[in-house]
Amino acid sequence: AYWVDSQQKRYVPVKGDPIIGIVTAKAGDIFKVDVGGSEQASLSYLAFEGATKRNRPNVQVGDLVYGQFIVANKDMEPEMVCIDSSGRANGMGIIGHEGLLFKVSLGLIRKLLAPNCEIIQELGQLYPFEIVLGMNGRIWVKAKTVQQTLIVANILEACEHMTSEQRKQALAKLSES
Amino acid sequence: MPGARLAPSGSKLTGHVPPAWQLPVVSVVRDAEAQLLPDVGAIVTCKVCSINSRFAKVHILYVGSTPLKSAFRGTIRREDIRATERDKVEVYKSFRPGDIVLAKVISLGDAQSNYLLSTAENELGVVVAHGEAGARLVPISWCEMQCPRTHTKEFRKVARVQPQFLQT
């Protein structure tokens, strides 16, 4: 298979992509989620692990959710779920209230999601942190303190324009201080 | 006679009513030609304007072979697209916006709602469709159409048009 790699910041929903969305509204049985595309995606309240009609998930407006698209084409409104095909969460669902969400370009996300990405490994040696990457250009980071979280976020944003030597120098300076 | 005056010219309008055989007939004419309204059971030609996971919205363009002056709006529900396996049907694999569809009217709807249409027959469904590459698709089975340029197959609910209506 062939594909064309390009630099872009505007996300177009694709079926199967894992993304981070922000819940904007509750409309009866579904949530409206902003995923950074031209339309808001719909997320059914039953599309969470262990959710039934009696046992509704605790999702509020403004929450972050990590899920994937099951319907995404140019003619219809995109639909996302927070479970995989077997019904298990597999890491998807509501993201905690702490941490920081920020936006980067789509090319950087693809680079970070490549297997054996050096950036994440080197950052992990600096500070321990949790990270969630969304293919729609959104990254959620949480480290032990607010300062460490901000440092990790700034490094990730700057990785777009730094070469690997510059990055190693910056990380070396940070680990000294 | 249509267009006749109520009282013959030169006569005075009095309380005197002329006998019935002398009374002119008055008729009210609305437009130049009568508007043909789709009736329940009529076959209509429509164009899909938007799709949803539950239904497809269409503009009704022709009733039978007569074009309509103003397009009416119709809805094809998901369960009315096919006659068999009505619950497993996906609207995205049956219609796309821009397709020309032959459908049958099943209900006129209430005051606010649109005509309710159905394509649950072999002769009903997509007649003309354009693919993602922009070329006109060629039907290869009742559920697939192929682009002649890129040879990619797309899913549609294809109508089996009677041979006498096909022009090759």
TrEMBL record, chain A:
Q: Which residues form the K Homology domain?
A: 99-147
The GO terms this record gives for MF are: RNA binding
Q: Does the keyword Nucleus apply?
A: yes
Task: Read off the Pfam families from this record.
Answer: KH_6 (PF15985), RRP40_S1 (PF21262)
Task: Quote the subcellular location field of this record.
Answer: Cytoplasm; Nucleus, Nucleolus
Q: What is its main location?
A: cytoplasm
GO cellular component: a single term: nuclear exosome (RNase complex)
Quote the InterPro entries the UniProt record gives.
Exosome_RNA_bind1/RRP40/RRP4, KH_dom_type_1, KH_dom_type_1_sf, NA-bd_OB-fold, RRP40_KH-I, Rrp40_S1
* Stored Gene3D superfamilies: K Homology domain, type 1 (3.30.1370.10), Nucleic acid-binding proteins (2.40.50.140)
Task: Alphabetically list the UniProt keywords.
Answer: Cytoplasm, Exosome, Nucleus, RNA-binding, rRNA processing
- Would you say which domain of life the source belongs to? Eukaryota
What GO biological process terms are annotated to this protein in UniProt?
CUT catabolic process; exonucleolytic trimming to generate mature 3'-end of 5.8S rRNA from tricistronic rRNA transcript (SSU-rRNA, 5.8S rRNA, LSU-rRNA); nuclear polyadenylation-dependent rRNA catabolic process; poly(A)-dependent snoRNA 3'-end processing; regulation of gene expression; TRAMP-dependent tRNA surveillance pathway; U4 snRNA 3'-end processing
Stated family: Belongs to the RRP40 family.
Full protein name: Exosome complex component RRP40
From TrEMBL, chain B:
- Enumerate the spans annotated as S1 motif domain: 39-120
GO process terms (BP): RNA processing
Location relative to the cell: Nucleus, Nucleolus
Gene3D superfamilies the UniProt entry points to: Nucleic acid-binding proteins
Q: Does the keyword Cell inner membrane apply?
A: no
Alphabetical GO CC annotations of the entry are: cytoplasm; nuclear exosome (RNase complex); nucleolus
Matching Pfam families, A to Z? EXOSC1
Q: Which residues form a coiled coil?
A: none
Entry superkingdom? Eukaryota
Q: Which GO terms describe its molecular function?
A: RNA binding
Q: List the keywords (alphabetical).
A: Cytoplasm, Exosome
Organism source for this protein?
A: Alligator sinensis
Any idea what this protein is called?
Exosome complex component CSL4
